Amino acid sequence: MSTQTNPDYGRAGRNLPLATAVGVLLFAVFALSLIYRPFIFALLAAIVMLLAVAELSRALVAELPAEVRKVLLVAAPSMVLAAYFGGPQWLLISFVIAVVAVLVSRLFHEQEKYVSNVSRAIFILTYAPLLSSFAVLLAAQKDGDLKVLTLVLLTIGADIGGYFAGVLFGKHPMAPRISPKKSWEGLVGAVLLEIGIGIALWIFLFDGSWWKGALAGAIMAITATFGDLVESMIKRDLGIKDMSRLVPGHGGIMDRLDSLVINAAVAWALFALLV
C-alpha cells in the first residue's frame, strides 16, 4: 500500500516557481485592467471579494444559515462597487447595511450560536471586502493607477525582502507558534527593501520628498508582515494550512491577499497624509 506525502518546499512553504508564475499573471491582469479603465479593476475586485467571502464563510462558519451566507455574498461585491462609485461615505453606508442585514437575517433560526455566527459573519465582512475596498478607493482617485501600483509593490517588497533576509540570516523566530519561518532578521530585510522601494516610488512617481517614501515603505513592511501573521493565526485557529485550493501555488484567495487587505487601508491613509 502506497502512502502520499506532501512535498517539502523548504522555507517557502509552497511551490515557489508555480506561486511566482501565478502571482505575476494575476498582477498583470489587474494592472492591465487598472490602466485600461479603473471601473474594470473595481469590477474584478468585486468578483474576487465574492470568491473570498465564499471561501471565508466555508472555513470560518460551517453551520452558517443559508440566508446569512447569501447576505455576505451580496454584500461583498456591493461594498467594493459602493466604494468605487461613492467613495468612503458609500463604503461605510454599505458596510452598516450589511451588518444590520446579518443581524436580522440570523434572527429567524435557532438561538444557539447566534452570537458566534453573527460575530464571525461581521468579521468576514470587515476582514475581506471592507479592508480590500480601500484599494478601490485609491483606484478612483487622481493618479489611482500609480497609487494602487505603489500599494502592490510595497506589499510584494515585504514578502521578497522578508523571504531572502530570512533564508540568508534568519535565526530568531518572530512568532514561532504562529509562523515558525518568519524571523526578526526577515522583518529587518523587509523594512530595508521597502524603504528603498518607497523612496524610489515617491521621488519618481509622485515627485515627493524621499523621507515620505521611506516612512511609507517602513510602515507598510511592518503592516504587511502583521497581515501575513493575522492570516496564519486564523488558519492555526481553524487547523488548516490553506483557506482553499482555488489559486494554484498559493492556496486560497485570502492566502494571496493576506498582506494586501491590511496594506490597502494603510496605503489609503498614508496617501491622504503624505501625497
Summarize the topology.
Blueprint: H1 16-36, H2 38-60, H3 66-105, H4 114-139, H5 144-169, E1 173-175, E2 179-183, H6 184-204, H7 210-238, H8 253-274
Antiparallel strand pairs: 1-2
Helix pairs in contact: 1-2, 2-3, 2-4, 3-4, 4-5, 4-8, 5-6, 5-7, 5-8, 6-7, 7-8
Characterization of the model:
The chain is globular. It has a two-stranded antiparallel sheet. The protein has eight helices and two strands, in the order αααααββααα. The protein has 275 residues and is mainly α. The chain folds into two domains: 14-140, no CATH class; 142-275, no CATH class.
Radius of gyration: 19 Å
The helical percent reads over 70%
Number of distinct beta strands: 2
Question: Strand fraction band?
Answer: under 5%
Order of helices and strands: HHHHHEEHHH
Largest sheet: 2 strands, antiparallel
